[in-house]
Amino acid sequence: MKLLMALMVSVVLALAAFGTAQVPDKLILDGKEVPLFENPLEFLWVDEAGTPVLFSEAYLEPAAAPTSAEERAALEAKYAKRPRRPQVFDEGSMSSANWRGYMATWTIESDRLLLVKVAQEHQTKPVPKNRKDRENWRPKWEMREIPIERILPGKTLPVFAEWYSGRLKIPQGEMTRYVHMGYGSEYERELLIEIKNGVVVARAEISTAGKNEFRSVPDLQWCALGQEVEDKGDWVDVRLLATRRLRELINSGEEFRTRGVFFRHNDSKVAASLVVFETRKTKADNFPIHKLPAGVAVKDGSHVEVTARFVVVGEVPELQVSAIRELKGGESMHAASFPAEWEALQAEASAEKAAEAKKVAEPAK
Fold first, then answer.
1. C-beta separation of 322 from 213 below 8 A
2. Are 202 and 194 in contact (CB under 8 A)?
3. Distance of CA 243 to the CA centre of its chain
4. Alpha-carbon distance 202 to 192, whole Å?
5. CA atoms of 57 and 41, how far apart (whole Å)
6. What CATH class does 236-347 carry?
7. pLDDT per residue rounded down to tens, the chain (365 residues)
8. Main-chain dihedrals φ then ψ at residue 137, nearest 5 degrees
């Protein structure tokens, strides 16, 4: 029971902490120290789905406590199988801006990702016991290195990060959009480094300026680390479904192809959603998928192309999908023709609105 209570408390605290922009790890790259918007060390302690337990225990577990002895036993058994993060991470000064309890320093040498230091913040000036002394008291902190044997017994620094496969993100230039959560803030440019079993396999830089202001960061990342792909552009950009094109497609009943990010809904009236992320020029949106073909095995978060037509359920237009495929790395979710089409449709809508307003304002003859 104590284990269960501790787990539930940690979930609540983690949920609150994750809602804050985080202090990043550091990466020594080409002789310079840069912020690293990823935490490769956490991938040493993952759950049954391969997600770091620090994340999954905060986001993926039910918020309410189990209601029966069987549910409590099942939850405790599930957690018991998961690896435990080192206790040393709880010994420093914790804050909502550093939920992991440390800052790691990394370097890349000969295309290998190496861990060179792990440190944590400690308070060096204790709170005075006397109430009067506390009035002028100000806290002080210092960074102390954590001995690597307390994290990885038997290892010596530097440690080759052979356990890590994923994408390192290094922000560059000015911040263009602040997001008060994790590493969600956006910058003028991002350097992306793809890692497989600790070894660099790809490296690319993306920019959100100029022609890319109409493209989302996930799409830019997907294309930057993919291959050059021939694209005829004979599909409807999903963002146009927020314009009069939606009405045209509903009225015609014709099938069309569009692209987005796929997310399944297990306890919803709709089967899934097709999502498009925010760009510098457009807002995020999602479109419900009313029906999927039988046996669809697409994973959540996949970039996909769907062949569909609209059906109106109640008053809500939903996509009835007849075919779906995952996009290849390099295939964009955003059509190159979108900016011109979008601006033309916006201009048409503004002209129609102005004409209607003029008609209303004219005196009756």
1. no
2. yes
3. 27
4. 8
5. 17
6. mainly beta
7. 333 333 333 333 333 334 566 889 999 998 999 999 999 999 999 988 788 888 776 554 444 556 678 877 777 777 777 888 999 998 887 777 788 889 999 999 999 999 999 999 887 767 777 777 777 777 777 889 999 999 999 999 999 999 999 999 999 998 888 777 678 888 889 999 999 999 999 999 999 888 899 999 899 999 998 888 888 889 999 999 888 889 999 999 999 999 999 999 876 788 999 999 988 888 899 999 998 888 888 888 999 999 999 999 888 899 999 999 999 989 999 999 999 988 888 888 888 888 888 888 776 55
8. -75, 135
d(CA 146, CA 138): 25
Using only C-alpha atoms, what is the Rg of the chain?
25
**Token duo for residue 83:** 């690896």
Give the closest residue to 303 by CA, choosing from 284, 269, 280, 330: 330
In one letter, which amino acid is 338? F
Q: Which two tokens stand for residue 257?
A: 């192809």
C-alpha to C-alpha distance for 132 and 125, rounded to whole angstroms: 16
CA dist 211 and 141 (Å) reads 45
Parse the chain into domains and list their residue ranges: 2-160, 236-347
Sole residue written with tokens 């506390």: 134
Task: Quote the pTM value.
Answer: 0.75
Q: For residues 69 and 75, what is the distance between their CA atoms, to the nearest angstrom?
A: 10
Question: How many Å is the maximal CA-CA distance in the chain?
Answer: 93
Q: What is the C-alpha to C-alpha distance for residues 44 and 29, in angstroms, rounded to an integer?
A: 23
Residue/partner pairs of 266-272 with CB below 8 Å, 24 or more apart? 270/318
Residue 322's closest CA among 296, 290, 292? Answer: 292
